[in-house]
Amino acid sequence: MCIRDRTSIECLNDDKNTNVNDILFGDVNQSKFLKSDSDHQLIISLAFNQPVKIHHLVIRSVDPKSAPKTIQIYVNRVGMDFNDCENEQPTQVIELKDTDYKGQTDLRYVKFQHVKSLTVFVSDNTGAVSYTHLTLPTIYSVQISVVAVSLKKK
């Protein structure tokens, strides 16, 4: 079951020849990617159909020179733009290392316990190129179960 709300996905500063849905929902065997347009920054915003707990991310890129270097993650803040991302305190800032592109990037799990929406801001990349490439970003989450409790008076 897909718990991401496809209708709420938004990407700011993406090259119009690429599509964020292709990398979030595409076939892993396809060579789809997301590329920034006017500079190296990108904002990917998505919502979930119900709250989730997120424990780690997987980030990949087609070219080490255009891979994301610094990402800022915001939890439960919708409608963020570049000004918001540059001025508001993120839930977590991650400086990606070479090992992150081959494995997973763990999050501070305690800060990602009841996530309804997620905004990922790529603030810079690893090279001197003016664009950023992303392939198949994956968010590993656990659905929060809701248990209804009925209180009956006797």
Q: Gist?
A:
The protein has 154 residues and is mainly β.
List its salient traits.
154 residues, 3 helices, 8 strands
Protein model, in words:
With 154 residues, the chain is mostly beta strands. Helix content is 11%, strand content 43%. The protein has three helices and eight strands. It has helices at residues 20-25, 82-87, 98-102, and strands at residues 4-12, 34-35, 42-60, 68-75, 92-95, 105-106, 115-125, 133-143. Strands 1, 2, 3, 4, 5, 6, 7 and 8 form an eight-stranded antiparallel sheet that branches. The longest helix has 6 residues, at 20-25. It is globular, with a radius of gyration of 17 Å. The termini are far apart.
Write the layout of secondary structure elements.
Blueprint: E1 4-12, H1 20-25, E2 34-35, E3 42-60, E4 68-75, H2 82-87, E5 92-95, H3 98-102, E6 105-106, E7 115-125, E8 133-143
* Strand coverage percent: 35-45%
- Low-pLDDT regions: none
Integer-rounded radius of gyration? 17 Å
Instruction: Output mean pLDDT.
Output: 82
